[in-house]
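Collaborator request log, item 7. Partner lab (contact: R.S.) asked for a structural prediction of Acetylornithine deacetylase (ArgE) to inform their binding assays.
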Amino acid sequence: MSNSLDLLKALVAFDTTSRESNLHLIEFVRDYLANFDVPCELVYNEQRSKANLFATIGPADRPGIVLSGHTDVVPVDGQPWSVAPFQLTERDGKLYGRGTADMKGYIACVLALVPSLVKAPLRLPVHIALSYDEEVGCLGVRSLLKALEQRPVKPMLCIIGEPTELKPVLGHKGKLAMRCDIHGEACHSAYAPLGVNAIEYAAELICELGRIGERLKAPEHHDARFDPPFSTVQTGVISGGKALNIVPADCRFDFEIRALPSQDPGVVAQELKTYTEQQMLPRMRAVSDQSAIRFSELSAYPGLATDAHSEAAELIAAFSGSREFGTVAFGTEGGLFDAAGIPTVVCGPGSMDQGHKPDEFVSLEQLSGCDDMLQRLLSSICR
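Returned to partner:
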């Protein structure tokens, strides 16, 4: 337990906010693994300012288990922290610091298991996978998975340690984030009909999104395993206009679709594009032929829906000690691992109720429980 604590203290001290580099943390982990003669591979981004890490312990010629986590954290800007966010603080059985729950607590437990892993007579390999830029769209793990595709042996299971209070999770929604840019025609507000008001057309599109969202709530589209039990859409950011007495020529808004694993979020985006082409652009171009509406993808990741009767589910039930499989509302890299042919479950210490908030924490009890779960995993692959 003290080893997990020491490692968590070291990991929290690295400011790996997504806008920053994660290389100091990755190099720390690389050097830590080197102390146990565990080689690792780094997969860099194009700028070589960030990297994924992949390491294998045990026989590499057979399918193994991936213990996966992301190294980046969300910003602390403007949040009222009562403790230093990048310094681990213990108080009343809780460990405070940015990333303690999401998800450096899990990474610390995985690293604490390494001394036992290298000494054990493993019949299956254990892989450690650390990624970058999960918080801004699951970006880094894609190049890592691409590198894994070149390997002759594919892992049999991936355990992503996002905070689930150590309850095994087999499903989450997928996400598609989009940006819409509307270009109209500016003019003096006294002659508003001579212009094309980009804000008003943006408002019309946002209202259409709302109508699509209402249709998605219909009972025939529900999946009771999820909360809410239907796919959702929402607009999160909007900007436009220069002054009240100028008809605005430009407006931009960002929206997202969080879709049940059985539904394609691209269908919603296409429905909105069709509405744009058929209902809006003809009216806009009747006033100004320079009018335009453009859609661009900001980020996307697939949902996860691991079969509760699959081998992956049986394995995580054995490790976690629970067959009460659940789902979560937040997204993970699990859908990408699963799409790459690696069955995936989500199970880690802490709760996302604490994630992304000031005074984020993971309890000592949860950290200890994660150590125990990983020890059970170790025991099961040594038999």
